[in-house]
Each structure stands twice: as structure tokens, then as C-alpha cells.
Amino acid sequence: xxxxxxxxLILMFCLSGFVIGNPxxxxxxxxxxxxxDRTVLVECFTGTWCTYCQGAEGALDRLADEYPxxxxxxxxxxxxxxxx
Length: 84
What we know:
Blueprint: H1 2-20, E1 40-46, H2 53-66, E2 72-78
Parallel strand pairs: 1-2
């Protein structure tokens, strides 16, 4: 019984190596601004203590430059901050 289990484990280990070399097929799709038929709402919650907010704001600025206001609306919430 032990030999059967050991042989099965060795076979599974050896056969699993064949899957590693096969890359998965994926389709690269490029979105265009014409494909959006709805307005996307982005809510960004910010604070003066937030270290990631500057990077997020830069990304949102790039999105705002790329898409017209009819397709993208950005709302930034700066709520309950003592420094405001």
C-alpha cells in the first residue's frame, strides 16, 4: 500500500512539471473612449494623513485628462479631517 502511494505521488510530481512550461492564453483588449456608453463615477476618499492619496489623485487626474466629463465623474471626499 505504501509503495502505491509513493508511486502515485512521484507520478503526480513528475507530471505536474509539464503544465509549468505552457503559458496561459490571454486576449489583450484595448479599451477605447468610444466603447463607454455610461458615465463612470469614481469616489476618492482622502485625508491629510493619507500617504497614498497623492498617488491616487495623480492617477485620477490622468483619467480626467483621458476621458470627457460625459463619461467620467470624479468625486473626492475629504471628510472629518481636523486640518481642513
